[in-house]
Structure formats: structure tokens, C-alpha cells
């Protein structure tokens, strides 16, 4: 493993065993918020109740405030900002940048996932746009209702619970308590995947802005806790592997840098 180059920088690690042939180098970036020089937060700890109150308040109204807009947009690293601007111009000139996805932090996430290789980030971003169109992601709030939510939660304990000390939403998943046979009796793999995508969209559009406003700093990632207590071979059946791998692929390909 190579040396880390200071706080906020990325580490290069060698994947594939020995450092000889067949190995490759991959850059691991820290949580996206630590990539910027963020101002110190107030000593007052962010409470779950303050975030809950923000969830019930129209975020569009909050965004009209200039100070709130600064928090939602967050500080920007000058080098990152230049790369993002170059990336944005490249996509725009080629007619590949829809206005609704011309967001600084969205473009930055794809660039970071590809170690700021603009060609690779472009391919990833275009695949993301294609997937959104084919999966009708923007229509999920209107077309998809996960009516089995309550029953699924009993069988598959998971969800968000408060925030960490930096203001990031905390997601907890108790994998060892999942009963896949019962889960498939109340929902389907296709519907569960749609539910997962809708939750990721909610995290981007509602949870992160709410957490940003509550903590008075830009929040762009999630702290995830996976409780594997009780995990056994039954948790790795063929349907279970397919479901978890499909979710992992969606998160890696289309929602990079969120956790």
C-alpha cells in the first residue's frame, strides 16, 4: 500500500495480491465532504429532531435563502471545480448534458469514481443517463408505490436512524435477520429494487439537503452500518445473491460516492 498524501487526499492501493503481474492500482477517496476545506461546525450537536423538522418543511422555500443555498451547495475545492467545469463543458458541447443533471456535485461524484479520468467518467455518466431513462427513474414517485413497506420492514430490518457526529445520515441494515423466503412472499425482487432506487433518489433530493441545513454544512454521503450478526448460509441463497449483487451494482454504477 502506498503512502497517503495528507488529510483529504486519496490513497493508492494494489489489488490482486503480489505487486507483480496481474495486480492493478485503485485510488480510494475519503468521504466526499472531507475532500473540501469545510468550516468548523457549531459546538451544538445535530439532533434527530432538528432533521425531522426539516423533512416536514418545504425545501424549495428554504433554498430561496442565500445563506441556505451556500450550505446546500457547499464549499468547493478549486482544483475539483476546474475539472468539473471542464467536464461540464465537454458534455455540453457534445449535447450530452441534460439540464436536470447539470449539478456540480453529481458530476464530481462520477469524476471521483473514475479517479478524475474524464473519458471514463463520461462513459459512466452516459450509462447512468441511459439507465435512468430505461428504468423511468424520474417517474418512480408518480408510478411506483411500495405498499408492502411495513411488511418488508418486519422481515428485512433496515432504514435510516439519526445522523453521525458530522451530520451524515446513518443507515442501518440487519442482514442476519433477513428471511428471504418470507420476503419473497410479500414482494418481488423487481419491486424491491425499485424501492431501493426510490430510496436512493430520496436520499439525494431530501435527506442530504435536510441534513445539510440541520448541520450547517454540505452533506453528500451516508454512514452505513451493516449488522451481520446471525448471518448464515441461508442468507446467501441464489435469489439472495442476485438481489444483493444487483443492488450493489446499481449503487456502484449509478449512485457512486454515496456511502
UniProtKB/TrEMBL annotation:
GO terms for biological process: protein transport. Residues 1-40 are annotated as: Disordered. It comes from the Eukaryota. CDD domains: SEC14. Residues 148-259 form the CRAL-TRIO domain. It is found in: Cell membrane; Golgi apparatus membrane. InterPro entries: CRAL-TRIO_dom, CRAL-TRIO_dom_sf, CRAL/TRIO_N_dom, CRAL/TRIO_N_dom_sf, PI/PC_transfer. GO terms for cellular component: Golgi membrane; plasma membrane. SMART domains: CRAL_TRIO_N. Pfam families: CRAL_TRIO. It is a peripheral membrane protein. Keywords: Golgi apparatus, Protein transport, Transport. Belongs to the SFH family. This is Putative CRAL-TRIO lipid binding domain, CRAL/TRIO domain-containing protein. It comes from Lupinus albus.
Amino acid at each position: 500500500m502506498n503512502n497517503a498524501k495528507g488529510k483529504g487526499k486519496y490513497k493508492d492501493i494494489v489489488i490482486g495480491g503480489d505487486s507483480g503481474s496481474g495486480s492493478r492500482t485503485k485510488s480510494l477517496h475519503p468521504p466526499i465532504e472531507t475532500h473540501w476545506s469545510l468550516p468548523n461546525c457549531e459546538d451544538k450537536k445535530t439532533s434527530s429532531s432538528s432533521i425531522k423538522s426539516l423533512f416536514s418543511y418545504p425545501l424549495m422555500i428554504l433554498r430561496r435563502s442565500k445563506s441556505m443555498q451556500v450550505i446546500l451547495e457547499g464549499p468547493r475545492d478549486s482544483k475539483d471545480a476546474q475539472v468539473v467545469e471542464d467536464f461540464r463543458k465537454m458534455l455540453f458541447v457534445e449535447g450530452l448534458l441534460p439540464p436536470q443533471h447539470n449539478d456540480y456535485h453529481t458530476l464530481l461524484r462520477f469524476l471521483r469514481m473514475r479517479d478524475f479520468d474524464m473519458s471514463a467518467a463520461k462513459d459512466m455518466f452516459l450509462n447512468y443517463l441511459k439507465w435512468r431513462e430505461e428504468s423511468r427513474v424520474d417517474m418512480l414517485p408518480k408510478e411506483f408505490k411500495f405498499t408492502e413497506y411495513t411488511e418488508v420492514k418486519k422481515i428485512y430490518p433496515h432504514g435510516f436512524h439519526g445522523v453521525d457526529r458530522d451530520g451524515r445520515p446513518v443507515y442501518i441494515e440487519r442482514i442476519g435477520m433477513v428471511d428471504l423466503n418470507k420476503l419473497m412472499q410479500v414482494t418481488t425482487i423487481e419491486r424491491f429494487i425499485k424501492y431501493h432506487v426510490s430510496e436512493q433518489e430520496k436520499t439525494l433530493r431530501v435527506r442530504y439537503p435536510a441534513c445539510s441545513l440541520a448541520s450547517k454544512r454540505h452533506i453528500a454521503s451516508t454512514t452505513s452500518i451493516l449488522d451481520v450478526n446471525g448471518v448464515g448460509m441461508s442468507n446467501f441463497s441464489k435469489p439472495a445473491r442476485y438481489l444483493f449483487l444487483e443492488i450493489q451494482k446499481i449503487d456502484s454504477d449509478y449512485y457512486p460516492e454515496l456511502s
